[in-house]
């Protein structure tokens, strides 16, 4: 079910934000020319037992495709809902996974949705494989493709090349469209460290967190899903449970970011780049050395975005100095990051997401776990301005040529919010 919600649509606040942000319009704060009243600020797309959502825009920015997992008849399924700019679902949500129940819920590994240059909709997700003697389940990574704008989906296709072999982890994934019409997916892979299913060591949780060789892998999905090929291993000692993230610059440089596990036990964010469509990558390098030592995985990965000046923005959480969400900027194509600044301080482990428009404006959505709110902050260059908080958690964003959209979870609701650039 869905409905309009104007709980955040205060026009006094909207006018104040317009003066502060200039080109960047407030999210959903628009006025009807006939009534002078604000249009709905956000909508609820679905209510129920749902996981984290992700979102992608159609090529003309007219539709938002939102993917999530939902419990149905005691099993989890991947669902896709498609909404227009008023938040109306254009059809009932459809199940993506071909096999009922072949899906798993995880806040750090939600189904990822993307749209290629032909308008085909892709959803990548994980399943759950319970292994005797292993505390945490293994999983495979799948993708399904819709040729009709999200109305129907084809077969579920395994992405990891060791599908059907020894159970291992293939998760904490990200998905993005490439300029050549292909899709690129990144994930954390444990195939080379997982012992055989009958090995008693699998019962030892410490093995999940020692310096034991989790890998960052990427694969290209080509020809509408007809060809899937793993192309590179970016890291062999990554943190095993922090999401990966991909972005593509206007110059077609691909950057993949993740959290690396150093031999010292410190877990800091790093990045690598590709200039050949994700077929090969540079060596990884740190975005910033926070020197965060933690015994265990914090379950929070970095995010990236590029503005119209080609500056690459990175945001991430670190517990090195009490718990901060940090922001840094690269002006050299992601080779180095500078201007490191704390955007949110003294908070527990938090997630972040970016919105960028066609100009220099950028909006960073960060969680504040203490208040269970999503905290929006605008950034033009490196200056930030506080904004009205949104009730909820686990934000996800997508940006197009003239609009962007935000989704997040508020209790048992998945909420959606449109932001036109002009």
Summarize the structure.
The protein is 3% helix and 44% strand. The protein has one helix at 11-21; strands spanning 3-5, 42-47, 54-57, 64-72, 75-83, 94-95, 112-115, 121-126, 141-146, 157-158, 170-177, 183-189, 214-222, 227-238, 245-248, 254-261, 267-274, 285-286, 303-306, 312-318, 324-330, 338-345, 352-356, 361-368, 373-380, 383-386, 390-391, 393-399, 403-410, 413-420.
Overview of the structural elements:
By secondary structure, the chain is mostly beta strands. The protein has one domain (48-420): Neuraminidase. Helices cover 3% and strands 44% of the residues. It has one helix at 11-21, and strands at residues 3-5, 42-47, 54-57, 64-72, 75-83, 94-95, 112-115, 121-126, 141-146, 157-158, 170-177, 183-189, 214-222, 227-238, 245-248, 254-261, 267-274, 285-286, 303-306, 312-318, 324-330, 338-345, 352-356, 361-368, 373-380, 383-386, 390-391, 393-399, 403-410, 413-420. The strands form 7 sheets. A 5-stranded antiparallel sheet has the order 1-2-30-29-28, with no helix packed on it. Strands 23, 24, 25, 26 and 27 form a 5-stranded antiparallel sheet that branches. A 4-stranded antiparallel sheet has the order 3-4-5-6, with no helix packed on it. A hairpin with a 5-residue loop joins β7 (112-115) and β8 (121-126). The longest helix is centred in the first third of the chain and has 11 residues, at 11-21. The two termini are 29 Å apart.
